[in-house]
């Protein structure tokens, strides 16, 4: 008499747990079906499968380039800003109104010398590009490798992790947590550095812009990215693009210099990026969803990755490792 009741209660208890377990193992593909602000990525170094990719997380490995730069001081300010940056970005909103980007800014130590780099991040529009605080920095020299991970934890929280491999014994890691604070409606940055057994903490609040709470790409969902889509049944459906190329962002004042011998004085200056052998100019991906009927639905257009005064290029050769 009591067994059916116990069994019924047991089934009622197990069923929700089973649903939670399944939901955790297999994120619902239709979770963001109604969202129109879920955009793709601007840069990626990894190969993806032909079907899907999780765009709440980006991993990239960047090698600091050996670039000699000459800064053109057109405005007479005498500034020596970094002129080469490598990075990855998650983008949301119309015209990339909210962007979470991370990477490295590289600049020459002295004219004619190799470049060094510093880790940087940007949460647009709340933060302008920000270098990691000096107490948390590690220097990146030419040919050093910086591992970057950008991860979205939810609509209001994200984490960026920078890593540099120093030796087989030690490994320094910079972890940057970007959180939107409820307190005073501001945006707060928390930096935690872990390496060599030490841990440092740093808190930073946005002081310059009273921006509204940004949506950091929402919850995780499975999508694939294509640079074209099937507009109707009468057209051939293109295959999803399975490879992302690293992208180089360079300022307009950058120059590369090659010379033979000092005696000859033969020098060739190349304008950057005009003289680069590019496989293609900037390509802005559309985020699309595969529908059961074989068609595709455009969820958003990834526009606006080009910053003011910057040029976005698709590199013909991988800069990462």
From TrEMBL:
Signal peptide positions are 1-31
User: Which controlled-vocabulary keywords does the entry list?
Assistant: Signal
| The protein's name | Uncharacterized protein
Q: Which organism is it from?
A: Thermothelomyces thermophilus (strain ATCC 42464 / BCRC 31852 / DSM 1799) (Sporotrichum thermophile)
Q: What is the lineage of its organism?
A: Eukaryota, Fungi, Dikarya, Ascomycota, Pezizomycotina
């Amino acid at each position: 008499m009591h067994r059916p009741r116990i069994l019924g209660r047991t089934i009622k208890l197990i069923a929700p747990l089973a649903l939670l377990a399944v939901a955790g193992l297999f994120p619902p593909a239709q979770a963001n079906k109604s969202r129109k602000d879920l955009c793709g990525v601007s840069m990626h170094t990894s190969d993806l499968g032909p079907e899907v990719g999780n765009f709440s997380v980006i991993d990239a490995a960047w090698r600091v380039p050996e670039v000699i730069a000459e800064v053109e001081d057109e405005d007479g300010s005498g500034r020596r800003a970094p002129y080469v940056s490598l990075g990855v970005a998650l983008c949301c909103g119309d015209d990339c109104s909210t962007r979470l980007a991370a990477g490295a800014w590289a600049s020459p130590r002295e004219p004619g010398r190799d470049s060094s780099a510093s880790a940087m991040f940007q949460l647009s529009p709340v933060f302008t590009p920000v270098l990691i605080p000096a107490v948390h920095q590690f220097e990146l020299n030419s040919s050093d490798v910086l591992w970057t991970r950008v991860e979205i934890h939810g609509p209001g929280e994200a984490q960026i992790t920078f890593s540099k491999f120093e030796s087989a014994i030690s490994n320094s890691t910079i972890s940057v947590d970007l959180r939107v604070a409820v307190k005073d409606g501001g945006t707060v940055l928390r930096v935690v550095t872990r390496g060599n057994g030490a841990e440092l903490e740093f808190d930073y609040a946005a002081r310059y812009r009273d921006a509204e709470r940004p949506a950091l790409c929402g919850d995780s969902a499975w999508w694939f990215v294509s640079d074209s889509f099937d507009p109707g049944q009468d057209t051939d459906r293109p295959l999803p693009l399975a490879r992302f190329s690293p992208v180089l962002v360079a300022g307009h004042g950058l120059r590369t210099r090659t010379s033979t011998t000092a005696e000859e004085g033969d020098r060739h200056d190349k304008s950057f990026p005009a003289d680069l052998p590019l496989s293609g100019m900037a390509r802005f991906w559309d985020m699309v969803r595969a529908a059961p009927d074989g068609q595709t639905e455009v969820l958003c257009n990834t526009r606006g990755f080009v910053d003011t005064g910057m040029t976005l290029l698709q590199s013909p050769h991988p800069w990462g490792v």
